[in-house]
C-alpha cells in the first residue's frame, strides 16, 4: 500500500458518475415502463444466497469458475448471486399460498461473476429480469416475443438492428436422437459445440468434435444440420414436433417476428423447452445481447408443486454496447433548473428562502455555499445546465424584488419575490 | 439437505414481493424527488471494494465484526460494502479532474453488515446516501438541515414526529479537554459511553465508567454535562467555539430546526466536525433513524488534494419502521389497468392485437394465457386491481367491436375496436 489508497474500483467493477448514471437510468426507465405496460410487477431479492441453489441447476461454468463465494460465521456457504433465476424460483416456491397465477414479475438486480474482464464482460453488472410463472401455454412464448420487441422499440431500436432467434430443447433433443444419433453422454458436449459454432473457425470445431469422439461423418452431418437451420424441423417425428412449444409459436402470427434457429443452446441447465437469444444484427458485432427461455422444473427444486416458468435476463453492459453501436444512447440529463445567487453575504438567508420557494414548485434549485463574483456564479450555473439564475441583489431585495435571468436567451426581468417561482417555471 | 432446497432467504436478508416492493419504491421515489429538487445527482458504485478502504476510517465495530469479506483468486482482499461513504470518497478522489465543486451527489446502494438480525437490523439493507463535497462553509450544514426536513415532509412526516439533533466533534473535543479533562487515550471510550447514555440504565453506565478508569467524581461531572446539553457551550473557550460549524449554524435561522445536543457521537471515525442524528420522537420508539456529518479528511486518504465532505446515509429498515409507526406507509400500487379477455380460443390473436393497442396508449394490460370462463377471468382482473376489462366476443369481433366494462361502476359499453384504448383511458 502506497501513501494513498487506490482510487480505481475493484477490477471488473464500475463507478457510475452522474452523467453515466443518468444515461443508465434513462435506458432502464424506458425498459421499466414497457415491462410494466405488459402488466409485470417489480420484486427484489438478496445478493447473498446459499451456494447450493446454484449448484443444483446453473451452468457448470458458473458454479465451478465464476461464483464469488464465502462462508459466514455460522458456517453457511454463501454466494453472491451470479444470476437471478434461482432466486426468483425460490421466492415463488416460498410464497405459493400468497400468489395468484400466472405471476408476471420483473427485477433489476446487480449480479456477480468472477470473469476475466473484457469487452462486454464485467464482474458486477445490472440485469433486468422478466419472468412469468404458472402457465405452460405457448401463449407465454408469444407474449415474450411481443414484450422483447416492445422493449427494443422502447430503446429506439428498429427490427433491422437485431434478430430474435428461438430454439426448443425438445426439438434439439429430437435432432440429437432422431437425426444425429448422439449418445446420451455426449449430448452436453455436442450442445457445447453447437454453442460455439459461429464463434470458432471450422478447423477448431473439427478438432473439438474429434476430441469428444464424434466421427468425421457425424461431424459432417452436424454441419449439414447447422446449415439446414429450421429446414431440419419437418424431418423430425410427429411426436417430437407435437411436444414442442416452438412449433406452436410457428403456427401463430408471432412466427414473423422470430428467426427459428434450432441450434441456439444457452448454457443453463434449467431450460426445458424454448430458448431464445437476441443478437445484434450489425456485422461488426454479431454478439448475443441477451436471452432466456422456458424452465418448467426449476420451482420444483424448492417445492412439491411444479410451476412452469419462462423468463430472461438482460444485462446492462451488452445492452449499452448495442445502444452505443447503433447511436441510441440518450444524452445525460441536465443537473439543475435554477441557481439562486445572492450578491452579498447578508443575502444568503433571503436566497435560501427564494430557493425553498422554487423547490416547493418542483424546480431543481441550488444556492452557492460561499461568496463569489456574480459572473463566476452565473458561469457555474450555466455549466451545470441551469436554465435560469435568480439574482438576489441588495437594492432589489430591499424593494421585495429579484432578477430572473434566462441563461439561454440572455433576457432578464425584475419580478416580485413571491412571483419568482412562476417566472422560472415559465422558462422550463 | 432435504428433499427440497430451502425457500427462505439467507438469514437477515429479505425477499421483496411486489406489494412490499411497491411500498418501498414509492417511499424512495418521494425521497429521490426531494433530493433532486435540491440539485443532487445520482451516482453508483460497486458492492465489492478492497477491504483496506474500510480498515482506514470506518468504525472498529464494522471492520472487526460486521464485514463480509472474501479473497479473490488474484489474492485481493475484498469486502461487501458495509456503507457507501468510503466508496464515494474514493470516487471523488479518482475523478478530481472531471468534477466542478461543490459536488452534490446521492446514491441508493445495498449495503451489507454481518449483524445478529433483530428489529431494525438486517444483513443487507438499502441506504439512501446524500453527500456534498468541496465546501467547508457552514452553509453546507444549513442546506442539509433544510434537505432533511424536506425529505421527512416528502414522506408525510410532521416536525413533531422526529427530532434532528446536531453536535460537533470540535465542541466535544473541547468538552473533553476543557471541562471533563479526559486523557487523550480515554476519549474513544468516553465517547462510546456517551453514545450509549440514553440506551443504558445509570448503574450500567457507572460500571462502564469505572471499567474505563473514570473516577466517581468524573462520572458525576459527565452526568452534569449530559444534563446541561447545549447549556454547556457558553462555558467553552472562544477558540473552541470559533472553530465550530455548529456555533455558526446556531447563529443562522436553521437554529430553530435542530436540537443542539453536544453529546451525539456517531460511531464512524471519519467525522471531523458536525454530526447529526434524526430520532423518532414517539415515546415507544426513541431510536436513531439515520445520521451523518462532516468528514473533511476522508478524500485525503486517496489523494493529495483534501476535499471537505458532508453527508448521511438513511437505511430502509429503520425508515420503514418509522413510517409504519406513524401511519405514513403508502398503499401498494395496483398491478394492471386493464385485461383483454377473449371468449374463445380463436379470439386470442385479436385479443393480443387489442392489448397491443392499449399498451401503445400507456395502459398496463394483460391477456389470459389459457382459455377460462369469462366470469373467472373478470374475477382475476378485479383481484389484480384492473379498472377495466375488454371483452372480445365472437359476434362483437365479427362486427369490429368489443365490450369495455368498468369494474368499479359495473357499467359497460360496446365500442369499435380502434376506439378501445380511448374508452379504457377515460376510465383511468
UniProtKB/TrEMBL annotation, chains A, B:
Q: Name one GO biological process term.
A: histidyl-tRNA aminoacylation
Its EC top class is ligase
E.C. number(s) listed in UniProt: 6.1.1.21
Task: Check the record and name the CDD domains matching this protein.
Answer: HisRS-like_core
Single annotated GO MF:
histidine-tRNA ligase activity
Question: The Aminoacyl-transfer RNA synthetases class-II family profile domain covers which part of the protein?
Answer: 11-330
Q: What catalytic reaction does the record list? A: tRNA(His) + L-histidine + ATP = L-histidyl-tRNA(His) + AMP + diphosphate + H(+)
**GO terms for cellular component:** cytoplasm
Pfam families this protein is in? HGTP_anticodon, tRNA-synt_His
Q: Which UniProt keywords apply?
A: Aminoacyl-tRNA synthetase, ATP-binding, Cytoplasm, Ligase, Nucleotide-binding, Protein biosynthesis
The positions annotated for binding L-histidine are 83-85, 113, 127, 131, 266, 270-271
Where is it localised?
A: Cytoplasm
Q: Which NCBIfam families does the UniProt entry name for this protein?
A: hisS
Please name the HAMAP family in this protein's record.
His_tRNA_synth (MF_00127)
Query: What family does this chain come from, according to its entry?
Result: Belongs to the class-II aminoacyl-tRNA synthetase family.
Self-association state and partner proteins as the record states: Homodimer.
Q: Which protein, by its recorded name, is this?
A: Histidine--tRNA ligase
Instruction: Say which species the protein is native to.
Output: Saccharomonospora marina XMU15
Amino acid at each position: 500500500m502506497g501513501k494513498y489508497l487506490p482510487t480505481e474500483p475493484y477490477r471488473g467493477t464500475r463507478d457510475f458518475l452522474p452523467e453515466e448514471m443518468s444515461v443508465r437510468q434513462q435506458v432502464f426507465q424506458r425498459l421499466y415502463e414497457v415491462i410494466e405496460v405488459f402488466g409485470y410487477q417489480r420484486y427484489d431479492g438478496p445478493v447473498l444466497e446459499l451456494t447450493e441453489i446454484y449448484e443444483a441447476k446453473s451452468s457448470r461454468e458458473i458454479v465451478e469458475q465464476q461464483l464469488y463465494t464465502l462462508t459466514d460465521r455460522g458456517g453457511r456457504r454463501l454466494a453472491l448471486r451470479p444470476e437471478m433465476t434461482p432466486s426468483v424460483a425460490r421466492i415463488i416456491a416460498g410464497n405459493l399460498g400468497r400468489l395468484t397465477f400466472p405471476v408476471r414479475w420483473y427485477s433489476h438486480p446487480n449480479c456477480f461473476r468472477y470473469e476475466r474482464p473484457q469487452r462486454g464482460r464485467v464482474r458486477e453488472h445490472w440485469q433486468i429480469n422478466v419472468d412469468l410463472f404458472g402457465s405452460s401455454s405457448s401463449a407465454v412464448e408469444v407474449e415474450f416475443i411481443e414484450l422483447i420487441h416492445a422493449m427494443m422499440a422502447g430503446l429506439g431500436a428498429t427490427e433491422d438492428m437485431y434478430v430474435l432467434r428461438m430454439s426448443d430443447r425438445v426439438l434439439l433433443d429430437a435432432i440429437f436422437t432422431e437425426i444425429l444419433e448422439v449418445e446420451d453422454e455426449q449430448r452436453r458436449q455436442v450442445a457445447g459445440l453447437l454453442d460455439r459454432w459461429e464463434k470458432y473457425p471450422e478447423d477448431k470445431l473439427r478438432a473439438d468434435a474429434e476430441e469428444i469422439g464424434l466421427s468425421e461423418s457425424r461431424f459432417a452431418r452436424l454441419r449439414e444440420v447447422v446449415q439446414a437451420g429450421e429446414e431440419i424441423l419437418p424431418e423430425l417425428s410427429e411426436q417430437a414436433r407435437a411436444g414442442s412449444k416452438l412449433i406452436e409459436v410457428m403456427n401463430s402470427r408471432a412466427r414473423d417476428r422470430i428467426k427459428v434457429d434450432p441450434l441456439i443452446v444457452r448454457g443453463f441447465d434449467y431450460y426445458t423447452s424454448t430458448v431464445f437469444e437476441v443478437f445484434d444484427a450489425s456485422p461488426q458485432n454479431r454478439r448475443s445481447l441477451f436471452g432466456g427461455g422456458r424452465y418448467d422444473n426449476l420451482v420444483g427444486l424448492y417445492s412439491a408443486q411444479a410451476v412452469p416458468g419462462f423468463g430472461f435476463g438482460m444485462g446492462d453492459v451488452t445492452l449499452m454496447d448495442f445502444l452505443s453501436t447503433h447511436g441510441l444512447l440518450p444524452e445525460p440529463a441536465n443537473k439543475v433548473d435554477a441557481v439562486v445567487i445572492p450578491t452579498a453575504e447578508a443575502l444568503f438567508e433571503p436566497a435560501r428562502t427564494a430557493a425553498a420557494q422554487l423547490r416547493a414548485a418542483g424546480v431543481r434549485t441550488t444556492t452557492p455555499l460561499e461568496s463569489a463574483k456574480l459572473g463566476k456564479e452565473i458561469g457555474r450555473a450555466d455549466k451545470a445546465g441551469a436554465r435560469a439564475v435568480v439574482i438576489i441583489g441588495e437594492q432589489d431585495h430591499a424593494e421585495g424584488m429579484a432578477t430572473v435571468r434566462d441563461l439561454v436567451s440572455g433576457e432578464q426581468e425584475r419580478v416580485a419575490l413571491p412571483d419568482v417561482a412562476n417566472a422560472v417555471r415559465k422558462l422550463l
